[in-house]
Write a structure and sequence with these properties.
Strand content: under 5%
Radius of gyration: 16 Å
Helix content: over 70%
Number of strands: 0
Order of helices and strands: HHHHHHHHH
Shape: globular
Number of helices: 9
Structural class: mainly alpha
Length: 191
């Protein structure tokens, strides 16, 4: 499975790179909106060789910066779900998943444990991530260092990504929280 997801990831990276060259808003939207889906299938690791090559050849990367808002949007959505849920188990899973996503940038617990069951919330979050990615694509947000994307690195994110990276984070967080709080129902977790 590993080699297959690697190939798929590399193909996706090349498609997104071509889209960024032709229509930055479309390439940015696609990359950021699809990032959590890529995580589900493990194809996001196929991006790493292209990102490393960008750093080696160009001195910066323009692919991963498109996803700067995704971890924060995911954290905000599951945090809102933890506040809204009446089920103690759901509250606990959503709250710990929010901490994992915000503090460590590890979104898998939120995606697999909560969001895959809350499809409408997940769909709105993907669209919001896409909007942030489109903005980053149009504004040519790049990074010249490798840093993790989480709450602990926000000062570095602001310095490296600039104001448009912060705008993408805010869009994802507001939309993610709103979607989680307004759309979540405990029955979603039973599906």
């Amino acid at each position: 499975v590993g080699p297959v997801t690697d190939v798929v990831g590399r193909v996706l990276a090349n498609v997104i790179k071509s889209a960024l060259d032709a229509v930055p808003a479309l390439g940015g939207f696609a990359m950021a909106a699809l990032w959590p889906i890529m995580i589900i299938f493990g194809v996001h690791w196929g991006m790493v060789p292209i990102v490393m090559n960008n750093h080696a050849v160009l001195g910066y990367d323009y692919i991963l910066p498109l996803t700067v808002g995704t971890n924060f949007g995911i954290a905000a959505a599951v945090f809102a779900i933890s506040l809204k849920s009446k089920n103690a188990e759901t509250k606990e899973l959503a709250a710990t998943s929010a901490v994992s996503a915000f503090v460590g940038g590890v979104t898998e617990p939120a995606i697999y444990g909560i969001l895959m069951k809350c499809k409408k919330v997940f769909a709105v979050l993907l669209l919001a991530n896409g909007i942030g990615g489109a903005i980053c694509g149009v504004m040519h947000v790049t990074r010249d260092v490798m840093i993790t994307v989480n709450g602990l690195t926000l000062p570095a994110i602001a310095a490296v990504y600039g104001p448009w990276g912060i705008v993408a984070i805010v869009i994802s967080m507001i939309a993610g929280f709103a979607a989680g709080f307004l759309m979540f129902k405990d029955e979603m977790m039973d599906a």
